[in-house]
Amino acid sequence: MAQRISRKIVITIILLVAGFAILFSVGLKGSLVYYLTVSEFMDPGRRTDLGDHFRVNGNVLSGSIKKHEGAPGARFILTDGRSQLPVVYNREVPDTFVDGSEAVVEGSLGADGTFVAVTLLAKCPSKYEAQNRLTNNDRRPARATPSSDPAEGGVPSR
Asked: In the CATH hierarchy, which top-level class contains the domain 33-134?
């Protein structure tokens, strides 16, 4: 005969599952950051329900990088070809952060309309990949060149 599960055990399991669900949702809500293009971010209707912390993707406008003197960080303009967003970043910039590179900034919009970034991710330009292919510098094992010495098993040249 099947044994009935006690009412106390059922209530305890329901409370545990509900507690874990609440902890999971609270923890996840704090770590969610929406990913927007510059145009999407500049449209106030798109960001009203997203909170105060954003992740914005775009390209660094050529000639717009102004490094801080005597301190880490830089000011620059991020664009997606349609809209532009002035950004200030006050930490050490990555080596791959150059004019025209694709970048992702994470932070919030300041009172003056400048995006204050706390994180800057600069994507590696694809020109490095092409340059590596042209120079055979893409970490492939070197091919042995055939020897012309018959003692080493090579074919003698004529």
From this structure: mainly beta
Of 82, 88, 103, the closest CA to residue 39 belongs to 82
Q: Are 75 and 120 a contacting pair, CB within 8 Å?
A: no
- What does the H/E/C string look like for 48-89? CCCCCCEEEEEEECCCCCEECCCCCCEEEEEECCCCEEEEEE
Angle at 44 between CA 41 and CA 49, to 5 degrees: 90
| Residue whose pair of structure tokens reads 């080596």 in the numeric block | 95
Q: What is the pTM of this model?
A: 0.58
Domain boundaries, the chain: 33-134
Tell me the pLDDT tens digit for each residue of 104-117.
Answer: 999 988 889 899 99
Q: Decide: residue 25, CB within 10 A, 0-12 exposed, 13-18 middle, 19+ buried.
A: exposed
Cβ 148 vs Cβ 157: under 8 Å: yes
The reported pLDDT for the residue numbered 128 is: 52
